[in-house]
Specification:
Blueprint (H helix, E strand, L loop, with lengths): L8 E5 L3 H13 L4 E5 L3 H9 L5 E3 L11 E4 L3 H11 L8 E4 L5 H10 L6 E5 L20 E6 L5 H13 L3 E4 L2 H29 L5 H5 L3 H5 L7 H10 L1 H23 L3 H16 L13 E5 L7 H10 L5 E6 L10 E5 L2 H13 L4 E3 L1
Parallel strand pairs: 1-2, 1-4, 2-3, 4-5, 7-8
Antiparallel strand pairs: 6-7, 9-11, 9-12, 10-11
Helix pairs in contact: 3-4, 6-10
């Protein structure tokens, strides 16, 4: 653990989107800390050194990792458990060993088998992006995002408190959970939606017309609810394999819910159908907009513009001249579920709010989501 008398040294195994973002956050708030990293991709390590994020680039998991206050396992879930064996002889009693995987049971079981419980506290920053790799990592990715901690049974309360404080200092929101409960929760609110999105996209692909009319018309709401299907296939393959039991059980329950919905449609059950849509609307609307869940929130506004040359360019110029960065911009052709003609997506909530106020000032009609 980090103390005033011990120089802070933090190790990373893997520097992808999440590992890179955690490392960048640490570099931002603790510029004097020594950061070392191992990654199979040498170009990633070279870039991290070039950007000044890490101090030492390691070609293997070796003695460089001795004396670390924290070691973050940030490789794919299946690889993290394999790296534990290599790290065992390098850990000092005060070191906190953690990971960033979205499945916790498998690594906790391996930690128990290797006798590493006194060092291990599982971690899961509930943040991400459809893009992966160190090049897409950002220091603010975990800011205001829930960061789940899953302490092992034999880790000291002192270590848990130290790790919680450290995560808070990176501007994330730590929550302590039992690792089994974590896998059940994330299986429902994160893993299941990704499977639904992917199967829905494939269903449209497989049932589309020869001239791909479905693909052409599937904009707006459809693209929003299936956005997460663009995530890394390797990562989600591994998550499904490692959280197999929970996901299978949850899928079974969800299939029952779909079967019930089908039965209501077949029976023309007006009350059941109304209750389905009313209850889902009310529950969704009760969710706080500030909630930092596992599926990254989009920050977008919709506005009405006249279809004339330079219309989009004018808006882009207004925003750019006020130092507001645009992530994406485009005309919405399918507006069945959208009010605005133009959709503008931003990188953060602050930019979205500023843009909305600015466009209203210029008398544009703006719809926020």
């Amino acid at each position: 653990m980090i103390s005033d008398s011990t120089p802070a040294k933090i190790g990373f195994i893997g520097l992808g989107l999440i590992g890179g973002s955690v490392a960048k956050a640490i570099r931002t708030y603790y510029p004097d800390y020594e950061l070392i990293a191992f990654d199979k991709n040498k170009e990633t390590l070279a870039l991290a050194v070039q950007e000044g994020i890490i101090d030492i680039s390691c070609s293997a998991i070796d003695d460089n990792f001795k004396g670390c206050s924290y070691i973050f396992l940030c490789a794919p879930v299946s690889y993290n458990t394999a790296y534990l064996t290599q790290l065992k002889s390098l850990l000092n009693p005060n070191c906190i060993l953690t990971d960033v995987g979205s499945v916790k049971t498998s690594i906790h079981e391996e930690v128990i088998a290797l006798g590493l419980e006194a060092n291990f506290i599982g971690g899961h920053p509930m943040a991400g992006s459809e893009k992966n790799g160190f090049a897409n990592s950002k220091a603010h990715l975990i800011e205001n995002a829930y960061y789940i901690l899953t302490p092992s049974a034999k880790v000291s309360a002192e270590k848990v408190d130290a790790y919680r404080d450290f995560i808070s200092s990176l501007k994330a929101l730590p929550i302590v959970l039992d690792y089994r409960q974590h896998d059940c929760i994330t299986g429902t609110i994160s893993h299941l939606p990704h499977i639904i999105a992917s199967t829905l996209v494939n269903f449209v692909r497989d049932t589309d017309t020869k001239d791909e009319l479905m693909k052409a018309l599937a904009a707006g709401g459809f693209k929003d609810i299936t956005r997460i299907a663009s995530s890394s296939p390797v990562m989600w393959q591994q998550i499904c394999l490692k959280n197999k039991g929970n996901i299978s059980h949850i899928l079974g329950q969800y299939i029952e819910a779909l079967t019930q919905a089908k039965a209501s449609v077949d029976a023309e059950d007006e009350n059941a159908l109304y209750t389905l849509f009313e209850s889902s609307r009310d529950y969704r609307n009760s969710m706080p907009n500030t909630s930092a869940g596992p599926i990254k929130k989009q920050f977008a506004v919709y506005c009405d513009i006249i279809d004339e040359a330079g219309g989009i360019a004018t808006i882009a110029t207004i925003l750019a001249s006020n130092n507001i960065s645009i992530k994406n911009i485009g005309i919405i052709h399918n507006r069945e579920f959208e009010e605005g003609v133009l959709r503008i997506e931003f990188y953060d909530e602050s930019s979205s709010s500023k843009a909305s106020a600015l466009l209203k000032k210029y008398r544009y009609i703006v719809y926020e989501i």
